[in-house]
Amino acid sequence: MKKLQYEDSFVKVAGLLGGDEYIKVARALLNNENATDEEIASATGLKINIVRRALYDLFGKSLISGIRVKDPKRGWYVYQWKAQTDQVDAFLNNRKRKIMERLKKRVAYETGHNFYFCGTQSCKKRVFEEAIDLSFRCPECDGQLQPHDNSEQVSAMKWKIEQLERELGQAS
Fold first, then answer.
1. φ, ψ for residue 61, nearest 5 deg
2. Which CATH number does the domain housing residue 50 bear?
């Protein structure tokens, strides 16, 4: 039963990285260990270049491994690919760490500046220095730039950082 959980997470991660094509490739890898590009293309019905793009991407993220072997029938070298389902958790934790670091930088930026906003959703908020240069007039809609309270966004980012820290703490 535990293996199914790993298979599901491997396929889900592949799907998040590249959509339906990656899902097909991931399932083919789980069904056929040490499969070649051609075997995966045949099993999935995808074009070989699409399969290779997915394989190289998954390989670059250390989610699959590949070994080069000589094809006995043709005499040239081919790669045999294998899913590394044990690497999924490490991959996800690495992604969470990167997201957490970006959120921390964003919180520092948001708390370190005063923002001004005209209230029109399609317009962007401006830092104080920029608002002064614009004479507190929005260049997009010509509305008056008013002080903008970003505490709700900052609170949401801090909550997400705490959630990621808890998840990463449990994973260690």
1. -100, 10
2. 1.10.10.10
